Amino acid sequence: MIFLKFDRRIFHHFDWTLLALVLIICVMGIMNIYSTGFSAAGGQTPFYLKQLQWVIIGLVFTMAVFFVDYRVIAQYAYVIYGMTVALLVLVFIVGYSSHGAQRWIGAGFFLIQPSELMKVVIIITLAHYLDNHKSNEPYKLKELFMPFLIVAVPFVLILMQPDLGTALMLMIIFVSIIFFMKVDRKSLIFLFVGGLILMPVGWFFLKDYQRERLITFLNPESDPLGSGYHIIQSKIAVGSGELFGKGFLSGSQTQLKFLPEQRTDFVFSVFAEEWGFIGGVVLIAMFTVLIFWGLKIALQARDLLGTIIAFGITALIAWEVFINIAMVLGLLPVVGIPLPFFSYGGSAMLSLMLAVGLLINVSARRFILQR
Amino acid sequence: MLNGQEPAEFKERIRIAIGVLLFAFCVLTLRMGYLQIIKGEEFKKKSENNSVRFRQIKPLRGLIMDRNGFVLVDNRPSFDVLYIPNRTKASELSVEKLRELYKSKAMELPFDQSVLRNAQPYLPIKLDKNVSMEKVALIETHSLDLPGIYVDITPVRLYVEGEMLAPIIGYTGEVTQAEMEKNRNKYAYGDVSGKHGLERFFDDYIRGRRGAELVEVNVLGKEIKNLGRIDPVSGHNMTLTIDFNIQKAAWDAIEGRAGSVVVMNPQDGSILAMASSPSFDPNMFHEGISNEVWRKLQANPFAPLSNKAISGQYPPGSTYKLIVAAAALEEGIIAPETRIFCDGFFTLGNRKYRCWKKGGHGYVNLHKAIVESCDVYFYTVGKMLGVDKIAEYAKRFGLGEVAGIDLPNEKSGLVPTREWKLTRRKEVWQIGETISISIGQGFNLLTTLQLANAFGSFANGGTVWKPYLVKQIESADGAVRKEFLPEKKGELKLNAKTMELLNDALRGVVNDPGGTGYAAKLPGVEVSGKTGTSQVVGLPQDERARRMRVLASFHKDHALFACYAPSKNPEIVVAIIMENAGGGGAVAAPIARRILNAYFEGQKGKPRQDVAYNP
After folding, report:
1. What is the ipTM of this complex?
2. What is the H or E stretch that residue A214 is in?
3. How many domains does chain A have?
4. Which chain A residues are closer than 8 Å to B187 by Cβ?
5. Which end of chain B offers a freer environment for a tag, N or C, measured as fewer CB atoms within 10 Å?
6. Which of B489, B488, B471 shows the shortest CA–CA distance to B480?
């Protein structure tokens, strides 16, 4: 039986703390989504129940990923990567043939967003590549070309959808992992200068609405009806929560739909309005603990592959938490990054639960010696 | 360790990562503290007054014009009294104050106070709609005493000559919950959508796009600053193929009786007029139609809400003889000179089928059979043809399937076949049923539109067009967005000889002495046509049929008439079906005469269109 092949120690070292932490955040998220849908007239399945479904399906994914040794998974990294890229391409083909939808493709009974999945896949792929090409020296520009290409392909595909936020997320993951692996100083300076030069060039590739968002961020008053409105209403929502919040289901900004994108990008404003500064700090603290835990796993991993995977996933979660909350608080432009485990969305939830499975996977196998 | 890098180095970098993380999250916490604790009070006030208010601006719906640019549907401003509850005591009293104000002027506020209890704060509630200028002035002068109450100006539809076209053009109303759920991206709360007829069919074009406005208001709900505005985009205007003068003639000719008329250009399928009676006043819908009036409209046995021209299905009666005759000639079952003796009866087994003329027509050939509408002749011919052959030709004439007009709820009618009866009714076809079918009775059903289209296709020499009502759609600034061109649906594929013979016979119906359509004869223009009188029997399971039994008048026959003119190079085809009105020649033909008269009077002075005609 296949089951007997498993080292039973992985069960002894199953990371219950991590899973519990994630599930608590998920449950808080579901309650929060319940609040956003509270005053809506129904007809179909309420969003909070759908989100609950996603969490449960996600848990199955978590367990499935946990059982297979991450080294085995990594061996198939390029295959998985190729299939996900294919899905991204499919988005264009299928997307065009239907009604111009760009980010989603139908998977029978629901829609999936391959770009969300890509965030996790890119981590495994990079980890696998870097693990195969380890060196004791800091990385030089030439050695970084391949990993850069690995990221660049989905980056361009996602940018073309267009989904600036998710595309940038891929770049951020890449940069984080590379920095973690250490880069040659001269190469670093070169990259930095190159990036500065490329920025104005990139401006031309942005869609009009993306440029507008950047302008709006720099000067919110310039577009009070569009994303400026989002930021203004979000700040009112958060601010009016004061120290203790208005209470569950009582956020007027939320309940009255002044707040846009309540279930997705702006979930945190809903939470902060109803639970106040205290609630917000508690949530941020929980994310902090989760991220620390992830870094701990990275540090204790039995091999380089595990370290990079764990670090990459932790970095993904950390960046998303930071960017999302900063955006909601008006510190960053509105770029459409969801709050992990908290925002409504099936693809994001499933991808994150997969990532959690990988983390637990690395964590549980830390004491198993390599062959 | 097999790692390329030493764990100590990782430790170092993780420490840096933790440092960055703590710093970043501290920034977030500080920012949150700034917003919630230092500025909290201010934001709380803002959220309570919701001093920044997002207001939708309704777009103007597109105009609807007749083919000559005469405006049939316009917009006019409507003043609605809205109330925004906002949780303060003062504002709760506003509604009571308004009620008293109304009372002082001997007016009544048609608003149920109990609705307020379930009201959601900040979502506007309509207290009174379409109010008079007197009320507007009253509210504006007392605005300081009425926090939360304001007058909103929205465009509403104005249907010029409402009744005349109501079943065709339809009407509008606020989107329903069901519509919103079906089209999440299309509609938002408070939008207006077309509910019926053209307003519904072309809603995507004429709806326009709502605009929005962001305004800052004070505690009393008064606007103090406009923060931004997106202008609404007016809907596209629509030019119909309808000619208002002919439409008016058709509507007047019906004289309020139950029935419908379709007037079409046989050369391209464009509808010149379409009338359905009785009708309703579409303007009453936004003036606030009471439940009682609505119930009455729906329960009315004459079905004023439905467009009978496309939704009413009737046995074609003797108008069907054109098709049976065409089939018989084409199939070589009869020659034009074949004579059949009519003694008033056709006997099949032990059953006798009556001719409408007691005593019979004597010897009849094809021409006489059509002109005098002899039933026995067609019983005989139909029996020889068989039901399936008749159906084959009926389908060529476009019957048994929707004509494809640009309106919702078009019915397909019914062309029965052996197979249809076997699959739908699980019964074998009876030969006696073929006899009934031959004169357009029995299972046969068609709509007035199909009748017009069938005769139109014959009139133009054999092309079945797809009928259409909308000629052109243009944006508010006049740019043409969509132009509708004639669309060919099929062909009759009849011999020239057959066409000529039948055309001659149809001309005889109106012009020969003893012709059943004599009442449609017009001086100066030759008219060809066919009368029909269909019996109202059968279909006991039909709800309307059940109601029909209640009133004796519902037992009367439907009067049908279809015609085209001039007999050579026809420009116009008219089809009429009057419900329970009596004989086609006596009731429907005179209506056609009035319409044709209006058309040719209007055509005088205009250069005659020269169209090739090859029957």
Report:
1. 0.87
2. helix A208-218
3. 1
4. none
5. N
6. B471
